[in-house]
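Deviations from the work plan: none for this task. Representative record:
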Amino acid sequence: PLSTNTFDYATYHTLDEIYSFMDLLVAENPNLVSKVEIGRSTENRPLYVLKFSKGGTNRPAVWIDTGIHSREWVTQASGVWFAKKIVVDHENDEGLASILDQMDIFLEIVTNPDGFAFTQTQNRMWRKTRSKQSGSVCIGVDPNRNWDAGFGGPGASRNPCSETYHGPYANSEPEVKAIVDFVKSHGNIKAFISIHSYSQLLLYPYGYTRTPVPDQKELHQISEKAVTALSSLYGTNYKYGSIFTTIYQASGSTVDWTYNQGIKYSFTFELRDTGRYGFLLPAKQIVPTAQETWLALKTIMLYTRDHLY
Amino acid sequence: TETFVGHQVLRITPTSDEELQVVQELQDLEELQLDFWLEPRGPGYPVDVRVPFPSLQSFKAHLEANGVSYSIMIEDVQALVDNEQTELLRSRRQ
């Protein structure tokens, strides 16, 4: 497509098509969007983050990532839609305009490009990274068990053949390490949202322990507002709560680490559906899923803007 | 390329800790090559698992022998994957 206006948001795309979309979006909006390479994957693919900024230096920021589990295709597709939405609405949507007046937004659409490419060519059901494990024939680490937060504890597997293998050590995966380094070097991220599918949940830390986070009450209130906004569009039913109490114990997860880094507003989404298509969500549900999720994201970003810390 | 002909995704909703344990024991049987789309959480919570065709018969028999009911969420995974690929190619052509 010659422009992001002719890009088809209602279908799934290949890695190359998504990377081309990013370049188009940057070229069309040089004063708002830039592309940052934060590292390289195991198979040496670039890890690109889109930065949406009206200027300033090192302003408070929101981080959104999609596709850390590669088979969750509706998340990368939603990330593409979010990117275009920010550009289209950054002036005419009062809420979004006010967010960008004070904060930057970082969006990593393909957080696990090796896994994503593998789902497109070899195995549609691939979830993990594609790193090789010494002493095992099995490949890959669960990038949502590889973070230095309760790493290696109950709620992850030490078996390299398991889908929830935590990896040989925390941040062993370059896809994870790249985000860790970015978050630490930026130092001013105030909200961190990692997007998965499926089962329609909005989750906050902790996953590695039953102990509630100090800000549990506030995070629960924000979740309630965000889920209410999400459901208002199509009536999609979400549950919300801490990872541990709402689903199960999960150690080494992304938002446990970001919360422990001091990023109070740390959330994980599990998008559609509740169990008809699972990871194989039909493409016609991409746009409605992205639209409803966007309402929840805006709720979290507006709250963050009004409660900077 | 990995194909999923005959693979089914089953939805199991354990109603007791005993039933949950039956499912969790299956989780450790690597030879079944089970792919848990929704992990076991607790009684009353759905567990979705992709079962490769070669394991399907014994998996279902084990559940039935232990009185654990299940439903079929996806009859044939490959059919959905093929659908998706057709859609992808069509939109690319457009």
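The mean pLDDT of chain A is 97.
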